[in-house]
């Protein structure tokens, strides 16, 4: 079974036409504890809202499923590579 994890590192390389190179390396893994707290709180709120909507016979939107699918989308971002040629600069984005 594959683990579904959010991205670990976001690596951005920028190369300007004048020869200047910039690299931004962001360790996204340091935000995981904050992400865990926010998602945990959002999950509790979504469960309460879903249950209240179910009891009220209101239109049921399945907010809990929306939250789970959003986390799956975040995990699917891993492995993304983008190369952008903007005329004045080249930008490479890697998400590990």
Can you tell me the residue ranges where pLDDT is under 50 for at least 5 consecutive residues? Answer: none
Residue-averaged pLDDT, rounded?
90
Widest beta sheet: strand line-up = 2-1-4-3
| Percent range for β-strand residues | 25-35%
Helix content: 25-40%
How many strand elements?
4
Major β-sheet, in short? 4 strands, antiparallel
Number of domains: 1
Radius of gyration: 19 Å
Q: Number of helix segments?
A: 2
Shape: elongated
The helix/strand class is alpha+beta
Keywords, separated by commas or semicolons:
single chain, 96 residues, alpha+beta, four-stranded antiparallel beta sheet, 2 helices, 4 strands, 40% helix, 26% strand
Account of the 3D structure:
The protein has 96 residues and is α+β, with helices and mostly antiparallel strands. The chain has a 4-stranded antiparallel beta sheet with strand order 2-1-4-3, with no helix packed on it. The chain has one domain (10-95). It contains 2 helices and 4 strands, in the order ββααββ. The chain starts with 9 loop residues before the first strand and ends with a strand.
